[in-house]
Amino acid sequence: MSNHEWTGQATCASSDPDLWFSPDPSDVAKAKEICTGCPVRRQCAERAAEFEGNLSHSYRHGVWAAQDTHERAAQRKGRHERSRRAAQIRDAILAHPDVPADIAAKRANCSVDHVYRVRRLHAAELATATDMAVAA
Ligand code: SF4
């Protein structure tokens, strides 16, 4: 399915649209229940994330993919935090490529397997840095 073709399969297309934008908690609960069985829930969640970006919950509207404004904002914030933490760990590992993996794991507060994974993923980058250090 490309672009917005999926909207043709949206369960909400044949329901009362006011349910998804109602301030009444029982309407919100009904909308979420309908969303739960929707065949395009994943696409809907992706569209909401793309459309709303990093907006706080007060700038979000309605229920999308069985999530209200608070739930979507919290999910986005959680993703942002996980991504920031992953970048910190990666940087800590790459800053000291020559220390043994178990020590790097302790310093970065991650598993030894993760150290090996990051070093493997960034092997070319590390090799270039080493070459430049040798040449200097
Ligand atoms: S998941 Fe999205 S497309 Fe499906 S019913 Fe809910 S709001 Fe509509």
Structure description:
The chain folds into two domains: 1-81, no CATH class; 96-136, no CATH class. The chain is 60% helix and 0% strand. It has six helices and no strands. The chain has helices at residues 25-36, 41-52, 69-95, 101-108, 112-121, 123-135. α3 packs antiparallel against α4 (101-108) and α4 (101-108) packs across α5 (112-121). It is elongated. The mean pLDDT is 90. The structure holds iron/sulfur cluster. Residues 10-12, 20, 34-35, 38, 40-41, 44, 64-65 line the site of iron/sulfur cluster.
Number of domain modules: 2
Cofactors, ions and other ligands in the entry:
iron/sulfur cluster
Count of alpha and pi helical runs = 6
Main beta sheet = none
- Termini separation comes to 52 Å
Structural class of the helices, strands and pairings?
mainly alpha
> Average pLDDT across residues?
90
Tell the overall outline: elongated
Return residue spans where pLDDT drops below 50 for at least 5 consecutive residues: none
Which range does the strand content fall in?
under 5%
Radius of gyration: 22 Å
Q: What order do the helices and strands follow?
A: HHHHHH
Fraction of residues in helix = 55-70%
